[in-house]
């Protein structure tokens, strides 16, 4: 009986050592897979940056856009009181004051800026990238 226990103990110990070796190999394999995935991710990021689809603008283009925006703002009449919605209140000493003020011409300002910028470019109705 003692021999059987000793033999069983040896078999269990051998099995345990074998499992530990397999576990170490799996850990190394998993780490290698993780490292390979990290390298693939970095390579994909580099390719994505190389393929960046945004158009390149020269300094002159940027300056022209900046000037168009500035001019659109300068030409817009922000002082026209019809461009605002006022909410009035009465103070405790019976004085009337503006409680809140909102512009109702946001769309107009956006249109003026957009128009000023679009005038700088030729716009293709059906570009190469459109389907």
Describe this structure as you would to a colleague.
Helix 2 runs antiparallel to helix 3 (106-118). The protein has 2 domains: 1-54; 59-118, no CATH class. It has 3 helices and 2 strands, in the order H-H-E-E-H. By secondary structure, the protein is mainly alpha-helical. The protein has a two-stranded antiparallel ribbon with strand order 1-2. A hairpin with a 5-residue loop joins strand 1 and strand 2. Helix content is 60%, strand content 11%. The chain starts with a helix and ends in a 13-residue tail after the last helix.
Tell me the number of strands: 2
Shape category = elongated
- Main β sheet profile: 2 strands, antiparallel
The computed structural class is mainly alpha
**The number of domains:** 2
Radius of gyration over all CA atoms, rounded:
36 Å
Give the integer mean of the pLDDT values.
Answer: 81
Q: What's the helix-strand series?
A: HHEEH
Task: Tell me the span between the first and last alpha carbons.
Answer: 83 Å
SS summary, helix count: 3
Strand sequence of the main sheet, in spatial order? 1-2
Report strand %: 5-15%
Name the poorly predicted regions.
none
Give the helix proportion (percent range): 55-70%
What is the gist of this entry?
The protein is mainly alpha-helical and 131 residues long.
List the helices and strands and how they pair.
Elements (H helix, E strand, L loop, with lengths): L1 H49 L8 H17 L8 E7 L5 E8 L2 H13 L13
Antiparallel strand pairs: 1-2
Helix pairs in contact: 2-3
